[in-house]
Amino acid sequence: MFEKICEMLADKFDVDASTLTADTKIKEDLQADSLDIVELMMDLEEECGVTIPDEEAAKMVTIGDLMKYIEEHK
């Protein structure tokens, strides 16, 4: 799951997937704006088969947060 999320983020934000860790901050480290976050959540929902409510998405700061949420809601 971690590798899949990193590949998606690397593609979307034009970064090297090998540099991403569970502690990578989506907004600060990847320079994601609010539109990027919405698009990312939609992509993750489609790819992973989960629903991510906006209020939950707002709480997710790191890649680890994304991974934890997806694993708990699959």
Describe this structure in words.
The protein is an all-alpha fold and 74 residues long. The protein is 62% helix and 0% strand. It is built from five helices and no strands. The chain has helices at residues 2-13, 26-30, 34-48, 54-57, 63-72. The model has no long low-confidence stretch (mean pLDDT 95).
Write the layout of secondary structure elements.
Layout: H1 2-13, H2 26-30, H3 34-48, H4 54-57, H5 63-72
Summarize the structure.
It is built from 5 helices and no strands. The chain has 74 residues and is an all-alpha fold.
Q: Could you give a short account of the major beta sheet?
A: none
Cα-based radius of gyration, to the nearest Å: 11 Å
Taken from the alpha-carbon principal axes, the silhouette is globular
Q: How would you name the oligomeric state of the polypeptide chains in this document?
A: single chain
Helix content: 55-70%
Can you give the mean pLDDT?
95
